[in-house]
Write a structure and sequence with these properties.
The complex is a heterodimer of chains A (208) and B (255). By secondary structure, chain A is of the alpha/beta class. In chain A, the strands form three sheets. In chain A, strands 2-1-3-4-13-12-11 form a seven-stranded mixed sheet, sandwiched between helices. Chain A has a four-stranded mixed sheet with strand order 6-5-7-10, covered by helices on one side. Chain A starts with a strand and ends with a helix. Chain B has a single domain, classed as Alpha-Beta Barrel (TIM Barrel). Chain B has 255 residues and is of the alpha/beta class. Helix content of chain B is 35%, strand content 29%. The chains are: A alpha/beta (208), B alpha/beta (255). Chains A and B meet through helix 1, strand 8, strand 9 and helix 6 of A and loops of B.
Chain lengths: 208, 255
């Protein structure tokens, strides 16, 4: 039987690619902005490109923050992508201070350019943080050094280092590329735009 | 470290992919979806589709093929062609494109760059610039998709790209017209000068045929991506061979 996955529609950005990738993997995909449907979901995906405050406004205006939190507490597989990952954190500095969903404690801050180009756009490697590893995570089976497609100007800074699942090199810094707490995973990069390597990650998420 | 991007460019005219030399004499080279899929399978990092008839004809790129491309492609792609408003851009982005590129409409209304960046974020907004050498300087041309309507815009290239960045462009694609379709290599000198004007990514376009051309433009002009059309369409250079060779020569590319 194919996995049922609910993609949260909160009125922002282009959901096309995520839906297409999930369909391609054989999932039964539901796109919804209904709090009841989100509360009843099996697997949840929170996609999104755009500004943090617009995203949070979209979620709260539709009454989605609470059912998302409950689904996460209930242990359902949850995947945030790009802005959908950033909104998992407590707070963002993007165009003023804005509260996030607070499911992973920490902040979203502007990338410190240090002479590099921002936005961070293109294909970059990911690897576990020093001392970290990926067995039994959404990145299980992905070789460190695999490349994914990034496009962002802000970056997550989880307060607990163990919530930092993957990093990507940026000049002398390492940017947070993925977060994880229990059943909640977030990717800063776009698996749906990362060719076969990205599809493999989504497939792993669907089998969780 | 971010890898250097290899980008395939598909000039679309009347629903098929065409290629000209120095922006003229366009010949049909293939079907949109077939070429897009082939380049994706070969490991292209990004695709750019230019509806080269859209601006001169005063119409917008048709949405249907954008949806079809989005259905088969799982790497980023950018669409250009007569996007004149936030509404136009929204339609293209909601059809599945990751970025939109504006060229002639930005020259007519530079404020459009800021409007698009405010609504979609600057990562979505690419400004394409068609530039021709003029004495010791570089001049911006517009409506370059039509042999009868092409004209000088009156702007200097290096000033225009800096202005585009200030207005909110997230990336510049610089088409060096003297090189276009010649296979004689990128205009490294012009691209290096352009690179020095910008803090956003710069994509080189025009003149690629050999691995050496890519190596030089990455090393000597410091561009972030390099685009080719004819060399890929005609099979003179395949993306996997190009990337393997660039990696051997010490450049970071995605294999």
């Amino acid at each position: 039987m194919s996995t049922k996955v609910t993609v949260i529609d909160y009125g922002i950005g282009n959901l096309h690619s995520v839906l297409k990738a999930l369909h391609h993997l054989g999932a039964t995909v539901e796109l919804t902005g209904s709090p009841q449907r989100v509360a009843a979901a099996d697997h949840l995906v929170l996609p999104g490109v755009g500004a943090f405050s617009d995203g949070m406004k979209g979620l709260t205006a539709r009454g989605l923050a609470e059912p998302i939190a409950r689904a996460c507490e209930a242990g359902r597989p949850f995947l945030g992508i790009c802005l959908g990952m950033q909104m998992l954190l407590s707070e963002s500095d993007e165009f003023g201070k804005h509260a996030g969903l607070g499911l992973i404690s920490g902040r979203v801050v502007a990338i410190d350019a240090q002479g590099m180009k921002v936005p961070h756009v293109g294909w970059n490697h990911i690897a576990p943080p020093a001392g970290g590893s990926w067995p039994d995570t959404a990145l299980d089976g992905t070789a460190p050094g695999t490349m994914f497609y990034f496009v962002h100007s802000f970056v997550a800074a989880p307060s607990d280092p163990k919530h930092r699942l993957a990093e990507t090199p940026f000049g002398n810094q390492k940017l947070c590329a993925a977060v994880k707490r229990d059943n909640i995973t977030g990717f800063q990069f776009h698996p749906e735009k990362s060719g076969p390597a990205g599809l493999a990650l989504l497939s792993r998420f669907l089998s969780a | 470290m971010l890898t250097k991007r290899i980008i395939a460019c598909l000039d679309v005219k009347d629903g098929v992919v065409v290629k000209g030399t120095r922006f003229a004499g366009h010949q049909v080279v293939g079907e949109i979806l077939e070429l897009a899929q082939r380049y994706r399978d070969q490991g292209v990092d990004e695709l750019i589709f230019y509806d080269i008839t859209a601006s001169p004809d005063g119409r917008r790129v048709s949405k249907k093929w954008v949806e079809n491309v989005a259905r088969v492609i799982d790497v980023p792609f950018c669409v250009a062609g007569g996007i004149r408003s936030v509404g136009d851009a929204k339609e293209i982005l909601h059809s599945g494109a990751d970025k939109i590129s504006i060229n002639s409409p930005a020259l007519e209304n530079p404020g459009l760059i800021s409007e698009l960046a405010a609504v979609f974020g600057n990562q979505c907004v690419v400004v394409g610039v068609d530039s021709k050498r003029q004495n010791d300087d570089f001049a911006v041309y517009r409506n370059t998709g039509s042999e009868s309507k092409i004209q000088e815009s009156g702007r200097r290239t290096l000033e225009w790209i800096a202005e585009a960045e200030r207005l909110g462009a997230g990336e510049i694609v610089l088409n060096c017209m003297n090189q276009d379709g010649t296979g004689s290599g990128y205009d490294v000198e012009q691209l290096a000068q352009a690179r020095a004007q910008l803090t956003i990514p710069l994509i080189a376009s025009g003149g690629a045929r050999k691995v050496d051309h890519f190596e030089r433009v990455f090393r000597d002009a410091g561009v972030d991506g390099a685009l080719a059309a004819g060399a890929f369409h005609r099979g003179e250079l395949t993306i996997p061979d190009l990337k393997v060779e660039l990696r051997k020569r010490g450049l970071e590319v995605r294999l």
